[in-house]
Amino acid sequence: MPEVNSKDETLAMSNVTGTAFIVAEFRAEENEETAPLYTDNIVKIWLNDETKEIATKIAKNSPAAKEMVKLRTKYFDDVLSNQILGGCKQVVILGSGLDTRAARINGEKATYFEIDDSTTLELKAKTLKAYNVNANVRYIPGDYVKDGLISLLKQSEFNLELPTYFLWEGNTTLIAKKDVIFVLEQIRDNVNDFRLSFDYMSEQVILRTTGYQDINDYIDKYESMYTPWITGFEKIATLADELNLKLIENFSTADLHAQYRPGRTLQSNLFKFYFVCTLENAVGCVNPEI
To answer: Which domain holds residue 230?
Structure first.
């Protein structure tokens, strides 16, 4: 088995956004559960003692972060699986980082398109190849806002006519609201048949108006270590209506926690204000029971 933390790989890893490895560590930890919400045996190929130490420190300072990553992973995995089973032929992952779904949830006829910076995608492709992990994926280096999402997809033989599922995970809080809307409009105006899932924060969190001091403390800790959260949405149904999109599902991570972890106590009030949702166009990609 090849070593991922050789000198060359360590250098490559140092050029990848640190949060990618932290999220990967959080996802990987679920494998240790007696009854895991999902199984991801691939993610470990990017992890080592250094990434584990950093993730442990982050989890100690911001304990809710780890559980929220696991809950959203479970939700997005389930929606994606149902979309592929229902006939979606293309899966687009925006800001894919070290996402492993192209290898884990790889329907025979589904093609994945992953968009991220070139360094991340190069490391990802190299490591998957070294471990003989197969994935029907096309890597697209670029910025889906500045370079234009549809323009990037067209360069990689993306078919605008095929049923497509878009997954946008861990991104919307970090980019301007106008850019979030711009991405949604690009998809709506160019792809005939799609569903789209993403996670988002309530605008109350961004404005620090939730009334919960533990949430404000969490944000202060997070922003002292990472890029500040700048975008949230108060009523996602209103946004969907304004964009002529149909809201299929909208769950707080508190809802997901109650469903996936019955009997466990919530770690933070933040779960009430952090959401996952799924939208579709007027045609709709598929409509399976989720």
So the answer is: 63-280
